[in-house]
Every structure is written in C-alpha cells, then in structure tokens.
Amino acid sequence: MKLVLLSGGSGKRLWPLSNDARSKQFLKVLETQNGELQSMVQRVWEQLGNVGLADSAVIATSKSQVDMIQSQLGQDVPIIIEPMRRDTFPAIALASVYLYSVEGIRLDEVVAVLPVDPYVEDRFFHRVKDLEETVLASGADLALIGVEPTYPSAKYGYIVPASKSSDSGYLRVSHFTEKPTEEKAAELIKQGALWNCGVFAFKLDYIISLLQEKGFPIQYDELLKQYDKLPKISFDYEVVEKTEHIVVLPYDGYWKDLGTWNTLTEEMATNQIGKGVISADCENTHLINELDIPVTVLGISNAVVAVSPDGILVADKAKSPKIKELVNDFDQRPMYEERRWGWYRVLDYTKFEDGREVLTKRIGVTAGKNLSYQMHHHRSEVWTIIKGEGEFALNGEIRRVKPGDVLEIPVGAKHGIKAITDLEFIEVQTGTQLIEEDIVRIYMTWEEVEANCFSASK
Description:
The protein is α/β, with parallel strands linked by helices.
C-alpha cells in the first residue's frame, strides 16, 4: 500500500502564527516526550515511522510549502509538487498519476490518502494499514476511516452507514452529512454515524480510469502541463459523492482536528511559549509569542494571545474559530518563513513615493546549509554578519566571513553563502521589485559553487 499525505491550506484560522507560507501543520507548538517542541507534520511523520509506513509515504503539496517540509522533515522526504493550488481532487489526481507513471505502481495496488496533520495516537495508523485489506476484501471503490464520535459536534462531517454493525468489520456507507447542527448530529450518532476524518483508500486503477474517462493524460509530465485544466474542486465533491460502493472502517480511538486556536491549545503541554508573563488569576489562557519582546497577560481568562511578525491576536477561545473571516482580506507578505536552509524574519518594509522599496530581514542559515548562488535584476543588497562563520561567494570568488563583516551585493552580482557554524545576518534589500520572482538561481549546492568559483585565500 502507498500513502499520500495532503499538505495544503493557508492556515488563516491560526493567524498570526500561520500564513500562506507557514500553514498550521508547520507550527512548532506541540511537545515531544523529551520536552522539545515539534509541529503537527513532524509528529505525524514520526508516527508513520513508528508503525512502518514512512517508507511507503509521499507528500503532495504546493511549491510554497516545499522548503518548510524539507526544513522540518529533511531533504530526502518524497514530495509531489503541485504547480498551483487547485483543491484536493487535482492534488490526488496528480499524486495518483505520479505513482502510476513515475514510480511504476501496479493498477491493483491500494493507495491511502490522509491529511498531513491529524492529532492521533499511533494506533490510528495501524487502522490506516487495515484499509488495504478492507478495499481488497469488500470490492468497494472507496474505503474510508470513520471516527466513533465522543460528542455531537457541529464542526465535523458525518459518515452515515447503512447499518450499525457488520461481521466483516467494515460498514457499507449510506450517505454523508456535512457539518450538521448539534441536534442533528445527536440524531446521526444514534444511527451509528461516524466522524469523517478525511482518510480513505482506493485501488490505483479507480482514479487512473476516472482520469482517462475525463480525457486527462495519465503520464505525470503530461498531466503537469494540463494541471490548470483539472477541475478546481474537492475530492469529496468530484469523486466521493459520485461513488456508489463505499465502505467505512470504524476507529474507536482518540482523534482531533487541531485547526483552530481553541482545539490546538487543548493539546499544548504548556500554557506559554516565548517571552512574557501570564498572571496567576488568568485561567485557561495561553500565550504564544514569537517576538523577542515581553508580552504580559493580566486578569484575562479563557483566552489565547498569539504574537508573531505577522500580527497580534487577542481572542476569547470560544470565538477564535472566527479569526479566518476577519483576516481573510489581509494582503501582506509573510513576515516569517522557514526554508530548507534555515529561516528569515522581516524586520521592516518601506515603499517610497518614487517607487523605491527597502526591505530589511534577519536571516538564519543552519550550519552546513547554504543559500543558492543567485543574482537579482532589480535590487541591491547589503548583508551584515551578526553571528557565526561562513563562506561567502561573490562573482566567482569565495572568502570566509565572520561577525562584523559587511557584504555589499550590487544589482546583477552573483552571490551566495554557506554557514560553517549557525550563521545569522541582517539583509537590507533596496530596489524597485523586492519579490521572490527576482531571484535567478545559478547553483543550488555549495559543491557546484566550489567547482565554479575560486577561493580568495588561495
């Protein structure tokens, strides 16, 4: 069985820590057994390893999340990159075609799909393993996992089975109900309905045949070219609702969607991350602060205070799910991002009346990692090294750099840097188009830089 993890979303429900570049699954707010902080995607990937599924898994994601995934899971994690965001049906279609035409997976092999961020026990993934046998034994087109509800929630979708029990261990699905009222949810639970946790499986042939019927190519490179022609629709609407033979595998363990501040803080091991103070008379209040300034919370209960370079949120926990509606129209560049080589934080951005822009960043490069050897057409840069040591390449020459060094990079100059120890520098960009598209990457690895540049010390 192959596993496809879907990693998408802009994560606006966890603003200001999440943004278009750093969705909720990448926030390091959960605690490991040894007290370190980890993200949802790191937790899930570790759990897949615990049950022997990591080697069978690939992650389907957009270009904007690749660096974050590699930063948190390593450079070798298998990734299928969507050329643009187009909802879950196109993502699953692309992943299926990749497995078929690139990896050479047989058409009768079972493929399971799940979100990259469920908050579950390890045994949930043992249940995911059971999907393979369920698909083969039932002859169903789709097999789902349904979580046995612990209360009548209006936040989740429900899978309604045709009967409450079965000798086979799986149930035939009658229909689906999406986010009912609590009263309706209580009725559904009496009928044996299960929470839909977004996990399902199928034989690869089911999706490949569907794409052929719709006239889409089943070769990966060809489908990439036509990706914008795939319907921008969820897999539920495009496939699940039109499929007649569906079964569901009940799961009676712990499962939670940590998609809002109130649900996420329930699973945090500490009520404070970052610099600040929460007064003793605050009850059930959480402070998450990513800035290097103290935040004091005094006499406020049942609240979440979240502080990041993107903004500040002070919210009643019960009202916090509404944050997406309020910030959906915010149009600003992400102020903090993790990359494959480290991270950066925007310190200041100014646009002058004559069209000039100045962007100031604090950049951290992890020891042994490097920024690509690149150039810009529309901006100059000045780097001031503030921590660590590294190798700096400029127009074919490599030299050592240390704290206090100021590096000037004119428009059009080829440049890159590698961290020998953990390295930090302040970057000031000046120009007319301070955008990601104004990066011309020449070499990605430092081995290529060393092979094509000379050392100033020689």
